[in-house]
Write a structure and sequence with these properties.
Elements lengths: L8 H10 L8 H7 L7 H11 L6 E3 H4 L2 H5 L8 H11 L6 E3 H9 L3
Helix pairs in contact: 1-2, 3-7
């Protein structure tokens, strides 16, 4: 499974282009532009599994740095401020990482 099997390649490209400049990434806008907010809870969890590069069941800050590259190879890395903003928005249990349920709640609250 790949991200483009869940999301439109065109929508992914548009979402990544929208945040090319450092510190321009807004997770709410990104999730809407790439179409993730209109997906089913199961599809959102499928995307989470693709983003969880080390298959730990969590997305940690180190993985978030390369978040855009998981959507489009060669995309820029996220800044430290951008990664921290995603973690603070989604990390409901304050363990410093994002679990599948937390990711799903964050994404679906952006619609």
């Amino acid at each position: 499974m790949s991200l483009s099997s869940i999301l439109s390649a065109e929508a992914i490209e548009n979402a990544v282009k929208d945040c090319q400049a450092p510190d321009s990434f807004c997770y709410k806008k990104f999730f809407r532009l790439c179409g993730l907010t209109s997906k089913t809870p199961q599809e959102v969890k499928d995307v989470f599994r693709l983003l969880d590069e080390d298959n730990s069941g969590y997305i940690e800050e180190a993985e978030l740095k390369f978040f855009l590259q998981r959507f489009v190879p060669g995309a820029r890395t996220l800044t430290e401020a951008e990664t921290k903003s995603i973690v603070s928005a989604a990390d409901y249990d304050s363990d410093g990482r994002i679990g599948a349920e937390e990711f799903q709640t964050m994404v679906l609250s952006c619609s």
